Amino acid sequence: MSKVVILNHPLINHKMAKIRDKRTGTKEFRESVSEVGGLITYEITRDFTTRPIIVETPICETTAYELDKHVVIVPILRAGLGMVEGIHNMIPTAKIGHIGLYRDEETLEPQVYYQKFPKDIIDGVVLVVDPMLATAGSACKAIEILKAHGATDIRYVGLVGCPEGVSRLQKEHPDVPIYLAAMDSHLNEVGYIVPGLGDCGDRLFGTK
Fold first, then answer.
1. Of these residues, 123, 152, 202, 207, which one is catalytic?
2. In what order do the strands lie in the sheet with 132-133?
3. Which residue among the candidates 21, 50, 199, 207 is catalytic per the annotation?
4. Which residues pair with 5 in a beta bridge?
5. What's the CA angle centered on 135, arms 33 and 46, to 5 degrees?
6. Catalytic: which of 24, 45, 78, 103?
7. Is the pLDDT of residue 189 over 70?
8. Domain residues of the chain, as ranges?
9. Is 184 a catalytic residue?
């Protein structure tokens, strides 16, 4: 069973209060989502390995350390884009892939309309980024596709999850750890997380 890490940190909680508030405008919402993405990155990378390198300081040579693996950020379009900048600011050497999914209105299953990944997903650490882990349909499909392309070290990164989504992701991909800023109560009858923060994509891009 994959581990679930809920990041109960004062700065994250403070910014999540702004993200949840329906009065928060698009600009502040987008900035706060990006900032939480950056803060979450510290926890995501806690177990990353490093390798020693020799660098020359203004004083002398010394041993320093750099990341041992490539990092690839893969947002699920479009809401996942909101967290990418914050994560990328912390790991500027990371490459970025993209995956676009939509829900088939008849089968209700996620369908792929776009995918493009750097080759580094095969031997790197892949961060699947999507702010809301609701039904987990999109997350599970995205991870399935990444595994089919050769990814083996995959981590899910989001803002808010619920027991239904976490349970499904753990069941379908027990090898993928889950990192969230908050765990909420449940899904309502139309598939929104309660209390949640509404439609993250619409609030990020001002489309509603």
1. 202
2. 132-133, 160-161, 182-183
3. 199
4. 179
5. 50
6. 103
7. yes
8. 4-205
9. no
Instruction: Please confirm, yes or no, whether 41 is among the known catalytic residues.
Output: no
Directed axis angle between helix 26-44 and helix 10-20, to 10°? 150
pLDDT of residue 12: 95
pLDDT tens per residue across span 6-28 = 998 999 999 999 999 999 999 99
Mean pLDDT of 94-122: 88
Contact 101, 142 (CB under 8 A): yes
The answer, yes or no, to whether residue 208 has pLDDT greater than 80, is no
What is the DSSP code (8-state) at residue 37? Answer: H
Under the banding of pLDDT at 50, 70 and 90, the label for residue 108 is low
CB 54 within 8 A of CB 74: no
CA atoms of 144 and 156, how far apart (whole Å): 12
1.10.1040.10, 3.40.50.2020, 3.40.50.300, 1.10.357.10: CATH of 4-205: 3.40.50.2020
199 is catalytic: yes
How confident is the model at residue 167, as a pLDDT?
A: 96
CB 73 within 8 A of CB 83: no
